[in-house]
Amino acid sequence: MVIQLAMTGILVALLPLSIVWGSNDSDKYRKLILLTLFLTFDLILFGAFTRLSDSGLGCPDWPGCYGHASPWQAHADISAAQLALPSGPVTVMKAWIEMTHRYFAMGIGVLIIALMVIAWRRWLQSGRVEKRFSPFLPTFLFVLVCVQGAFGAWTVTQKLQPLIVTIHLLLGLSLLALLACLLAQQNRYVADALPVSNSAAVSALKIPAACAFLVLIAQVALGAWVSTNYATLACTDFPLCHGNWIPSMDFANAYTLWRELGKTGSGEYLPFAALTAIHWVHRTFAVVVIALIAWVAYRARRIDGLNRIARFLFVVLAVQFGTGVLSIFFMSPLLLAAAHNGGAALLTLLLTMLNCKIRMAPLVGISQTSRTSQ
Do the Cβ atoms of 135 and 123 come closer than 8 Å? Predict the structure, then answer.
C-alpha cells in the first residue's frame, strides 16, 4: 500500500514537472517554485473544502483507506460503513474527497523534494558560492512538509481534535509563506527590485509590515479554532452577538486547547457559551487586523514596487470581510466558508511577499547602485 501511495504522489507531481521542463522558460528552477507555490495555495483551499464538507474522516485510517491505497479498492468497507450510518463521517464521496486531498499533498511533497535536490545539486556545482541556489530553505521546506504530513495523520487518528487540526492548518500556511520567501529570493535576480530612491520609505515600513503579518497569523489561528470547533454559527446576528455587544461567554472551556472535539477538558459536552466565546473573539479581533493591514497597505501604496501588492491587500481585505459577514447571514454555506478560508491564505501570501520585498529591497538597491557606478 505504501509503495502504491508513493507512486501515486510521483504521478501527481509528474504533470507540473512536465510543464516546467517542457516550457521555454530559461529559469526553470524559479518556475518550479512558482508552480509549487500556486499548487500549495490550491491544496490549502482543497483542505478547507475537505474539512468544511465533513470529509476529514472519510477514510478513518492513515495513510490509506481501510488499509488500501484508494477508495476504489476499499469500496466494500466504505459502503458497509455508509450503510450502517448514512449520515456519518464515512461515505463513498467523503472517502474520495479525503483521499484526493492526500494524493494532492503527496504530489506537493514530491515537488518540494525536487526543489531540494535541484538546489543542493546546483549549489554544490557552483562551489557553494551561488547564493541563489542556497539549499537550506528548500531543505527546511522538506522537513516542514514531513511534519505537516505527520499532523495530517494525527488529524485522522486523533479524530479531528481541534488543536491538531488547527496546527495542521497553520503549518500549511507556513509552507505557503516560506515558498513565497523562496520565490522572493529568486526575484532578486530577475530585476524584481524596488527603486533605490525608496529605501527610506521602505525601511520605515519594516516594523509595521512585520506586525501586520504577526497579527494576521494570530487571527488565522483564531479563525482556525472557530472552524475546527464548528463555532461559525455560534452567533447568527451581526454586528451584535445574541443581541448584545458582549454576550454570555465561557472562555475557560473555549480555550482549553487539549481536548476532544465537542468536549471540555474533563470530557463533558462543550457548552454553547464556549462556542460563543470562540466566535466572538475571532470576530472582535478582526477589527484590529483589518485596521492594521489597511494602514500598512495605505502606506505601501505610495512606494513604487509595493503599490501593486497594496492594492491587492485592499481588495482581499474587503472580500474577506464580506465573506465572513455573509457566512453568518447565510448560515455558512460551503462556498462562502471555503472562500473565507482562501482569503486568509491569500492575505498570508500577500503579507509574506510584502515583508520579503521590504527586507530584500536595500540589498538589491545596493547591488544595482554598484553596477551603475561601474
Answer: yes
- Strand stretches in the chain, DSSP E: none
Q: Which of 223, 238, 240, 235 is nearest to 320 (CA)?
A: 223
Residue 371: the pLDDT is 38
pLDDT at 333: 86
98 grid coordinates: 479525503
- Set of cell numbers at residue 14: 509528474
Whole-number pLDDT of residue 190: 57
Neighbours of 283 (CB within 10 A): 20
Q: Is the bond into 138 cis (omega within 30 degrees of 0)?
A: no
Residue ranges in the chain whose pLDDT is less than 50: 191-192, 196, 364-374
Active site residues: 98
Report the candidate in 150, 184, 141 with the shortest Cα–Cα distance to residue 40: 141
Closest by CA to 340, choosing from 177, 172, 223, is 223
pLDDT of residue 189: 62
Peptide bond into 239 cis (omega under 30): yes
**pTM for this predicted structure:** 0.91
Angle at 140 between CA 10 and CA 203, to 5 degrees: 125
Q: Which three cell numbers, joined as nine digits, stand for 120?
A: 543542493
